[in-house]
UniProtKB/TrEMBL annotation:
GO cellular component: mitochondrial inner membrane
Family recorded in the similarity comment: Belongs to the CBP4 family.
Keywords: Chaperone, Coiled coil, Membrane, Mitochondrion, Mitochondrion inner membrane, Transmembrane, Transmembrane helix
Family annotation (PANTHER family): ASSEMBLY FACTOR CBP4
Stated name of the protein: Cytochrome b mRNA-processing protein 4
Origin organism lineage: Eukaryota, Fungi, Dikarya, Ascomycota, Saccharomycotina
Coiled-coil segments on the chain, per record: 108-140
Length: 159
């Protein structure tokens, strides 16, 4: 009987307040209980963390390749279930095919080659800098020409 006397807006207000409390509680629990990516990585063992860091660029390269395939598939008129050049493991021709988009060995080989090239370029730049410094300073190491005054340092020897 008491429900008949209450206005309808009170019941609906109660429903909305209860719903907001449930949703707010869920959001707060999610925000404060789910760890961030950095926290998860910091909890890894050192071996797994090193493997994660080593393969980070490989995963990024695979993601770029996947995005290229998605763009090509989007532009084509094929049905959605056709995955383009990605072979499905459920199809006959796709069984036994490596699911990775980027070959690990060639990726790491290219990465090492790029590191070596960068080191060689750095060494060549340092060598050129050293050669220019040597050519520009033909003076003896014990003589200094400061502001037009020639200062000569003599080494005292015991006799």
């Amino acid at each position: 009987m008491s429900a008949a006397r209450r206005p309808a807006w009170r019941a609906w207000a109660r429903v909305y307040v209860t719903g907001a409390c449930i949703i707010g509680t869920g959001v707060l629990l999610f925000k404060y209980t789910v760890p961030t990516d950095e926290e998860l990585i910091s909890r890894f063992s050192p071996e797994i963390r090193a493997d994660y860091e080593r393969n980070k660029k490989l995963r990024q390269q695979e993601q770029q390749e996947l995005m290229k395939i998605v763009k090509e598939t989007y532009k084509s008129n094929d049905p959605i279930w056709k995955a383009g050049p990605i072979k499905s493991p459920f199809e006959k021709d796709g069984r036994g095919v490596d699911p990775h988009l980027v070959d690990k060995t060639s990726f790491f080989k290219n990465e090492e080659d790029n590191k070596r090239k960068a080191e060689i370029e750095k060494a060549n730049a340092e060598l050129e800098e050293t050669e220019t410094l040597l050519k520009s300073s033909k003076k003896s190491w014990w003589k200094c020409n400061c502001k037009g005054y020639r200062i000569t340092v003599y080494i005292a020897t015991k006799s």
